[in-house]
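dude i think i finally got it to work??
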Amino acid sequence: MNPHIPTIRDPITEITFWSRFGGAFCLLSPLLLFLAFFYVVPFANLIQESFRLTSLDGQVSDSLTLHQYIKTLSSSRIARVMERTFSMSVLTVVITLLLSYPIALLMIRIKSTPRTIILLVIFISLASSLIVRNYGWVVVLSDKGALNAFLQAIGLIQEPLRMMYSKVAIVIALVHFSIPFMVLPIYGSLLRQPRSLTEASLSLGGNSWQTFRKITLPLSLPGVFGGTVLTFALSMSAYVTPLMLGSPSSSMISQVAAEQLLVQLNFPYGSAIIVTLTVLTFILVAFYATILRRVFRADV
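look at this
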């Protein structure tokens, strides 16, 4: 390019670009600033802390090392807890999906008044405190709780079932917490489907099951993907629920990280556990998205 020839700027292109993305940028800028200050910067400090070395007397050196990650990946306790966290999270996702998809499908097919009532119940569940909900499950699942009393009253059991402080209690509470995060994305995905597709399938001789399997379910996979990812991420990072309803034998990885950070005051090791959990979660979500794109041809 000749340096003596001035560069000609196209004002039409600039105006078009700003008119397309300027409003969106202005609307998203508060959220981006919030994420930058309260997520990106703290997480960057967490990553930096995870590369530091802790001496025997508890002092943290300024030298950077992979010792904390080697310690995390070679620990048999971390491996067991990570496997337990993953299995319980997957189980929570499956149960939540099986319960939430019929609810979302029902909301599409019923009238506006009962649909509004269901949405109101979902929003009330979102607004209620997690600790209050967990205490509610303590009352229901305890040895002398409502569930055991009901089962004994109808003669199904003779002795109270031990449900509290176990994996069962944690999964039940996680499913209860995650249902709104699963129902709403699936409902939004179903709401965007043209009703004419279902009517065309039925008019061409397809029954309700064929219509659901070949039209409704494939077109709702983006909502299923969003709901399952949210549920999986919330379950993998759960801390309060397993702390209140679980036991040391059913502890999850967030509890181990909190133990290192808040009890042992081993910030580099705790930071390495959290970073490992975050990276592993992103890898699993990316793998899940790849399967949906290539196997089920879903637009996620």
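Residues 91 and 171 are 8 Å apart (CA to CA).
im so relieved honestly
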